[in-house]
């Protein structure tokens, strides 16, 4: 609508200016009007071909036609995405053409006596007229074009930021899901370590209790007391684990008010802090652990090398869990086999090894303990998480060996 309106006004202007042009050129007035209408209507294509519009405006300048077309054409040319040298060249041509035509017309008017000013007025009028018809539209077009490019750049930057925020949100969801999976894995590992060993010993003692209940009531009473003690210990550790879960849920509810990226990390960190604050097992309880296995009928020997010292809580808990799970596996898969537990305190690390001999024929446990196959995986995950080394496998003698080395951080 704007371009059509400008083209209509330009055509009417050029058509009206075509009348004196036809009289001066000695051609029919109708031809001058038609020529002006056609030339002025070129402004309709100013957005698509701005160079053509400016060239047409320069071409009809000697006929003193197309002032509106020249102004609008120069503005459109300067606002377009064209090289500056092209804009400068066309603007210079328009400036020079307008200056020459104005100079000639003013001089002719002064020669006819229409103007009685001095000779200084001729160059002054030509320069001011050419600059007034050329500089303002070019400068305005350059400003509008620069502003338009700035707005487009800001819009692209906003779109880019929106895409980056969307990508960050997706990564935050992935990180939260990863944190939840890690926490589930950690909780499953803790539950396995807590339940498997205690319950395995309870099953072994229950089987022994069933075997000696009638033959040796005194031993039966002792085994029953051991089963009760282990059950209470299992309940205590399970209660601690439930406390960790509740702490993780509270952290998740508190994290609902913060950005999504922090939710999964907050839950995992809260659960880890709760686990560290809980009274977990330590190396000082290792003798009691070995004693419980010995009370269940296992022939087990404990040897400690080096001077014992304080370690980080997670290091002591990991070392304890490795020995605990290895003894549980002996109860499950090699009942009656002689077992050796070795612990070595070194300068920058702590090493542990649990090795059992092959079980004697016919010495299988009557308890028929099930196996989930996750014990070795859990031990490896614990040790590797602390930057340690974990190795397990059968021995040449037919037994099984579990070894781990953990940095003493």
Q: How does the SSE layout of this entry go?
A:
Layout: H1 2-25, H2 29-40, H3 50-59, H4 67-79, H5 84-112, H6 121-212, H7 217-255, H8 261-277, H9 286-295, E1 300-305, H10 313-333, E2 339-345, E3 349-356, H11 375-385, E4 389-394, E5 400-407
Parallel strand pairs: 1-2
Antiparallel strand pairs: 2-3, 3-5, 4-5
Can you walk me through this structure?
Keywords: ATP-binding, Coiled coil, Kinase, Membrane, Nucleotide-binding, Phosphoprotein, Transferase, Transmembrane, Transmembrane helix, Two-component regulatory system. GO terms for molecular function: ATP binding; phosphorelay sensor kinase activity; protein dimerization activity. Residues 183-248 form the Signal transduction histidine kinase subgroup 3 dimerisation and phosphoacceptor domain. The chain is α+β, with helices and mostly antiparallel strands. Among the domains are: 2-119, no CATH class; 282-409, Heat Shock Protein 90. It is 68% helix and 9% strand. The chain has helices spanning 2-25, 29-40, 50-59, 67-79, 84-112, 121-212, 217-255, 261-277, 286-295, 313-333, 375-385, and strands at residues 300-305, 339-345, 349-356, 389-394, 400-407. Strands 1-2-3-5-4 form a five-stranded mixed beta sheet, covered by helices on one side. Helix 3 packs parallel to helix 5, helix 4 packs antiparallel against helix 5 (84-112) and helix 10 runs antiparallel to helix 11 (375-385). The protein is rod-shaped. 32% of the residues are buried.
